[in-house]
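Need tokens for this chain, all 665 residues.
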Amino acid sequence: MMKFFRKHTKELLAVFMALLLVVWLGGTALTEALQPDGLDLGERLGTLDGRAFTRGDLIATERRGQTLEALNLPWQQPWWSTMRSLELGFAPQLQELSENPLTTTEFHLLLREADTNHVVVSDESLMQFKDQIGLTDNVLFTIRDRNRLSVDEMHDAIRALLRVSHCAAQAARGLQPSEAEIQQLVHQIGEKAKVQSLTFNAGSLLNQSYNPPEQEIREQYEKYREEPPTPPGSLEFGYMLPEAAQIEYIEIKADAVKETSTISDEEAYAFWKDNKARFTKPTPPPPPAAEGEEPPTPDAPQPYATYTEAKTKVLDELKTQRSKEEAVRIAREAIALASIPWADAPTTQPGDYKIPPESQKNEKVYEDIVARLSAKYPGVLRYQRTAMLTALEFRQNRDLAGVSAQLGQRTFAQLSQAAYFVPELSAKPEDFQGQERLFRSLYQTCPEPFTNFGSGNAYVFRTVDVRKQQAPESLDLVREQIVKDLRMKWAYEEAEILANEFAEKVGTSELKAMYEADIDLKKKIPSPVQEPAPFARKMVNPYTGLQPASVPGIGSDEELMDKIFANADGATTQPTAPLVHGMESRAQYVVIQLQEIQPVNTKEYPDLHRQAADQLRRDRQGSFLAKWFDADNIRSRMAWVPAEPANPKDDAKEAESDNAQKAAL
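Here are the structure tokens for all 665 residues:
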């Protein structure tokens, strides 16, 4: 070896010097060849700790982000793992953050912050986290092989996410409620009101013969013609015509398929052997009980002893199952035929919706498919075309109500919704997770068959016309609804008058006794006085946090709760003067009389104290984390200064200088 080096020293030195020259002259090109495609690692992104921060400083963080994505861990939303470690459950304060995931730069800043605070993730914490999310060794190895990652790379990325999470958790753990705050909430969730109430429902006071003046009808129309429609029975008005869709569909009748189904004795016998308990003999009714005695318990159903006895029921069940499966298969065959003309159709941008071929705008498309398939399956297919229907009308349609498609283990789509999954209407794929593939163009057949769970019938459909939500063109289109609404409005005003008159009459007497004595009022308001179970003003829900409680039989109304508990500090033990409260959303007034306030008892206190302390802690820590993970706050805490936008003139000068240097060389 030494002889070789002595012999070729000059040649080796020449090669070495040539390589140095290549690096000196072509250093920039060599660097660009080794860096990721299209990235300038020297690009200045900003200033951190008083030093220039370039894109090259983000390479390691970007790699960690890609690894975490391969592990299906939300590194752009690290607050979820923080919520888990703090046992926050549902934190509504963090929901808005989910709409603005963090960038790689912000995640990098959080990692720097964790390093500054000397946050370390132990092997024990790493293993515990992996166990919590079900990241077993087998899963890890599968992800490793699929993404060409090492286990060390994956562990490093998980530790990065946990460092960010633990840093935020350490800062939040110190936020604990005071005892005074806990006691205040204990009163709100523990003290209970006992009341009597009488509901004055406008619906029971309607006067169908009342005809509103024409001027009032026109004023109502002009005021609410451009407001969206509201649920019936409400005093919130809106007369915009809702979205509507017209579909045509092919129904494959399972009963007709069943008539042609054949099941072999061998198949039926095997099915019976595996499911004997499902086929039972008819149970005779028990003998009548003697006077004064308990009726005898009917005998438990007994399975058939032999296949011959059960054969009729077995064949019927197998044919029913087979017919439902066959109906879906025929539906898929129809979908395949309907899809052929769309195979080469161009698409729109944006949206990637196919442009309908002219041949598909023909009203005979489905009729032709039915005629073609009926030759193979006579009497099985039926073609129908609906009128223009709103979503409510779809749900009320006798033939289509309840028709749905199962798209996954827990994902179902209703035909009454899927009929609107076309670009001309307001439904968007991102709002219907798991149902995105049902979105298609007008005239295009829905790619999945729908079924009626009860009958087993299968459905193939397409949307052929739509109407966007719009204001009515004339008063006459909504006149009937306006008249109904004005009658309800008049009845609501009448309910208010009656409720106030009755409340004044009751005074400090017992509400129920006064109602029973008022014969005229009982004729107008036949619903009895309610005496609901005692209720608190607020409740702690583990999923939604602190919420206003509800009055049993009346519902949840925060303003009403405030009125009822307004005098709770007075430890009421006697009936007070009743209060009157209007509820426009339900078109009713309620008269409520507080009978007493029941204080927190010693048996309930420890559990209520724990609930109150936990809820206040969750609220405080949730609010803190919402600010901690806010992108602007992250940049501010770490004194991040973004780079100024590039100036084209400066870029031109820099390029000119580079060219001059290259020319000189």
